[in-house]
Design brief:
The structure is a homohexamer of 315-residue chains. Chain A is an alpha/beta fold and 315 residues long. Chain A is built from eleven helices and eleven strands.
């Protein structure tokens, strides 16, 4: 028993280490967070020595809660935990191995999804086109990279993405690939839009009615694309879709620290900073969402939630 | 003659000093540049000793050309020079004093225009409203300051205005006035728009068909205001209106240095920066232009050009 | 047999009494009508003494037809009757009890649906918001009441809803709840829209392509919300969705008596009244439909029809 | 002198009687009010016996102020008074007769303007068309009546125009003319719009940027017309145009008594009535404004103000 | 064996004859091509004498490939071949008869679908309406013809449909039916739109996100309908829906010969012809798609693809 | 006298010859017709031998009426005649020479206007751009030709312009200039719009509220340009502006012969052709009108009418 406890403690220590990394954004990006959570649950299940199934479920539930608390509104984290924990087993051994298999499958699927989205989405890009992207989305860049690797001659326009300047990561990535890229400030998107053939962005959350929650500024770009009749393409792994929104939940928009925008707000008496991390793009401005399971109109979000996330309309 | 020449040289030296300050942006802001040019012409006329009227006109024309070359596309500079030089005189003495009077009048009018715009524009702002502004426009802030001084309780949302961050000047100005102000990144404007009761911005140029050329990002904000049925108000002295655009001239959009956006572009092989200083807001997105002569719809731009700048439709 | 007949007659008499109340609008509101019809069928099934299954089905079919004829185009009535009558049974006893169970379940579900819609829909309302509603919808008011009960500080703007002035019922209901409410004429909705954070209305019918048939004036409000980027939320029990529209049927808009609008039309020789009871809101103006099974985009109407009403695409 | 005073008192008594009738709406309608004010000024000038020109101007100024105070925001009243009082005279006799002539001319012009608008506006109506009108505008009905008198077969749809039900006046007027007319509730306008070939409404105020201030509900109808590509025509005498709005003044929207909407608001604790008399239609929704001087686009409002009301852009 | 070969050759000869007719457009129209392909596969299966199941599958696969190559991007051809070839059989006899049954069913269903679409779609047309149609679609005309046969008094406006002038086929068809029809040039559609109550067109392809690929000019008409709030109805058999587009495939727009537009392009040195056969109508402009399985909003395209074409979201 | 009469007859004969050529479209194009009319009036004035001024005016009035009757709705014809006839003279000799000078000036101005429009309009075209044009407008092509002559590398897309196929004239003209040109059918404009940087078209009439009456199909193209945020530029000599429309006159749209569209309509019993020559483009879709006097927004139409055509707002 002592040994068991020790192991359990060790398991907990590692789990908490993962949680810390997520909170401090050492691990960041919706996909990487989700995979880290799945891995942590697998590991935690592996070291649990309890023999009582109920006790095992309790332990795992505790671990899941700790993980979920790190970023309470991240739907990819919540979907990952939910998928790993969805098991039916008659004893601890079977439960453990089911969780470990679920975790492996989730991680593998997540890794494959980015490639698959690249494959599906890149079919919509023609040689000679200019693509605008915002922030630094793994899935969106997968589409661009695949089009480039397939020999299509494309140009990219990348936004700075204030305040965190993820655009610099994006131009670094594209520069290494050898994709001709222009960097613009976020205020210059509408100006540049007449030269753009398609916009490709990622997703933090897709809601049940097809709205997109993504990096602040995304909804602005969607409106410019709409105004200029330019296709607006979202790249989103299916675990970015939010079942809870179907039950009416609103996605809470995280408010980030003022310091990201203004070094020293204490210099001012009447000034404060508003720094929302995300904004909401209405589905009317989205042409297509490329998932690893296919390219769908945003209004079909529920079908993804039902068929891929195993969620049902009930009352 | 030697004396005359000396004086002329001294006149030229001072003129060229003013030009240098405009070019290096030591003197900046459309209004200040225009007033500096008017002042320089006055001074230059004052020191000219030639007695031949034709020779005098030649000298003054040369001075005007030197001034115009500092910022060839700035319509307020060109209007200022045109207004100062519009004289009819039968001898040098009368010509000199006409120019000097024109210059004085232009400077005085320009200074008064900002106040007058504040007075006219602030009537459109009600107590309790939230005003969004972009960049750091003297005329736009005059409207906000006047509303505040008149005891209206207003809040302001100010954008950063990348890449030059003029938003910091704006929050500094408003902080000193004691106006409650929020600073947001340029990507957060659409997000914030539902809390905004009116947008107030300045103008670099108003074209003959009522389009607005202003700080990059302005046209984006205009579109968000239009989408959300929020009034979009432009503050513009009448010398910001461009007669040349009626003859078909397009306003050239200045391309600024890459370094303003990206410290060291040489780190990248395939990346370049696009850094337009201005964008064009179509008149359909503008509710009203507040000038010192009244609040007009953008489509009435020609009337301003005709009645205030003395320009006529001819062929 | 005589006894049976008597009972049958008594059954018929009660059924016809319910029908009369529906026709005279003593029983009114889509939900109450549907529940009354279900109850009448249950009661009618309970008193049928026939022993032949075929005869039983005939009798029940007759009762259903009589009920349906009272308001031939009310989809909630038709869905209620359809749901109650959907049975498979090998003898009369089983058929009777299946119908009675169906009726009980429908009534219970209907009652619960209003609560559930309130729970789901109220999540979309934040404290401090102003909600506009039209007419007097049980489901829409359930959302508002739930938000209020949950301690959210909300204000409501209610329309008169000419010609029947159901707005007076709405303000009475909200006054009792203690919700601060403003009453406006139907012509003042666009004027008031800039103060509105969300519109919440009910539904008479949701068609297969997501259009909303509701109280005259609803489509006007939807357009104002759309113009001002204000969310437009529909509260609709799933039995308001119309399977028949998928087969191309148009929902007929009931034309109400002239007297509702003009006391004495006979005073005029050239004037007539047009008094449609409903109008049609296109799905493009609807942000979300809150049903008891979840909040869906209008384009997902078919999924509700299929999964909740058991209807299939066939040819 | 005593006699003079008496007369002056009598003059004042009559003037005040006119003011009372305007305030109590015994005299109502922008045109009738304006003509009554002109007539009162004429009469008042006629009975003034002072011989000192300065004193005469003081007296007349006092009378003008009294009249203006009756409906402080009615632009037609203010324009009428301004037009009558615009004189230059070297003695009282000439001043008196100038005022009296101005008053006569204003009244005559006002009467003729309605006819002229009918003539000009009716050219835009073709036989076979259906016209929708709102409230009860003299000028709008002049267009419809003229088209009818010219033998064009037209149908009219008239709104109730809650809360004051001016639609009943309109259908009475049209019934007498023999124009086939349909009465609808204000909520049914969008529903009816597909049958409408043109909308014709009147105006209370036209602002300097071409916006229309008119009976509550007008802006709703303009939006429906815009949505359905139906021409929206405004009938407005030139004295409805507001010079003050060019100097930034906002037109204050009169808030009418709650009793017009809700008989007894005291029955409710949490309910209040909002009853704005007018709303504002943006110029983008207006196709043409028919004045007695011609049919102009709303953006040309300033030209009317300048050429017809003698107002200039100045600073 | 020799005999077998001969037969096989004969089978191939007939198959190739069908292919030639499709390529030369002797057989044309999506439905007719699809049925011809199904018939050819049936016939080809019928004459195959091989006894090895694997060999049989190879033969049939070869035949399918030859057919598909005739119009590589025609989704109805590809769906037809796919549906006929979808079999599971343990021996050649069963396989052969399964293919032959599939082919018969496809042909029968295809023929019935046009009737069924006419039945469903015509419910949306009211007596007294004017319908505009473009090109010469079997399914669209089925709706019009059915409405006419049901005794509804309808008028039709038909476009020329340059460059192939299929409008002449349409007016011939309607003339024979006795439907009053107006012929207009393609440039006159917007002009005529105010007289139109509904637009009805066919479909070449419906994509996974509900876009319509149809005869060049269709998207123009959809935009005019949208601008004027006129319903835009698409008539499309379910085998026009494209599963491949869900996997990101773009529908390639066929470029037709220059000679269709310009007799002799060789007369010009600097002129070339662009002659796309189709254009793409975004789903936002489509009100409803009438299929033989029901009338759906375009966003439900995936449901058709899944439920009717047996395709699933997978990765 | 006999001689006079003879001369008069000869004058009349020549005048009538010009009229015949206009009617048969031997002389065609708004500019050429206007110049021919001016020339005919000059010639007619030159041969009149009457000595009585009143009689001379009568004769000239008769000639003007005959000319006007050839194309009663052509505003350029009516403006030309009006401009030539606008004289004040005390005797026949002076009247004659005034008319002859007016005619010379009109012709010269008209010829120069096309060049001047080319000069002004071409400033809005940048090297590398693709321009779409419709029909065969002298003024629109002047803009394109000037841009080409100025060394700008431009491509043109020209529509067929059914039914008269004036697009063939346009591609012939551009081919000779050496401008790379693509010919498309009228149905392919929206498809091509994403490749277009600006649309340039001519004008038959500009109305007082800035609407454009031009070749059928123009309003369609304007809508596509609007949808895609592409500038829509109108080239129009000032004598295309219609003073009469300010007085409410609607421009009658000429209905052309059915044979232009359908060779033999007698083959059909239920088919008729609708063949409007022009359509109306609302001013909201027009970015700028390039006249020889400057580039103006359409809403400034009245200013052109007033300042260039000498027309005033009066009642």
């Amino acid at each position: 028993m002592a040994e068991n406890d020790d192991i359990s403690v060790r398991g907990l220590a590692k789990l908490e280490d993962t949680c810390r990394k997520i909170q401090t954004m050492e691990i960041r990006g919706a996909g990487r967070i989700a995979r880290a959570a799945a891995g942590a649950l697998k590991e935690y299940a592996g070291v649990q020595q309890v023999e009582d199934l109920h006790r095992f479920h309790e332990e795992m539930g505790r671990a899941a809660d700790i993980l979920l608390a790190t970023r309470p509104t991240a739907v990819s984290l919540s979907n990952a935990v939910g998928m790993v924990m969805r098991i039916q087993a008659s004893d601890v051994a079977r439960a453990r191995s089911a969780i470990m298999e679920n975790a492996d499958r989730f991680i593998e699927n997540s890794l494959r999804a980015v490639d698959r989205i690249g494959e599906i989405g890149s079919k919509r890009i023609r040689s000679g086109e200019t693509i605008l992207t915002h922030c630094n989305s793994e899935a969106a860049l997968s589409i661009i990279a695949r089009a480039h690797r397939d020999g299509k001659e494309i140009d990219v326009i990348a936004t700075e993405s204030r305040p965190r300047m993820q655009g610099l990561l994006t131009i670094g990535f594209l520069d290494e690939l050898g994709v001709p890229t222009e960097l613009i400030v976020d205020s210059a998107v509408r100006s540049a839009m007449n030269d753009v053939d398609a916009v490709v962005v990622g997703a933090d959350v897709i809601t049940g009615n097809g709205s997109l929650v993504n990096k602040i500024g995304t909804s602005q770009i969607a409106l410019f694309a709409h105004e200029a009749r330019t296709p607006f393409i979202v790249a989103a792994e299916t675990y970015k879709f939010s079942p809870a929104t179907i039950m009416g939940e609103l996605v809470e928009i995280e408010e980030r620290p003022a310091e990201e925008v203004l070094k020293d707000a204490s210099l001012y008496r009447h000034v404060r900073v508003r720094n929302p991390a995300f904004d909401v793009t209405p589905h009317q401005y989205i042409d297509v969402i490329c998932t690893e399971a296919g390219a769908i109109p945003p209004e079909m979000s529920y079908v993804i939630i039902k068929e891929r996330l195993g969620w049902e309309l009930t009352d």
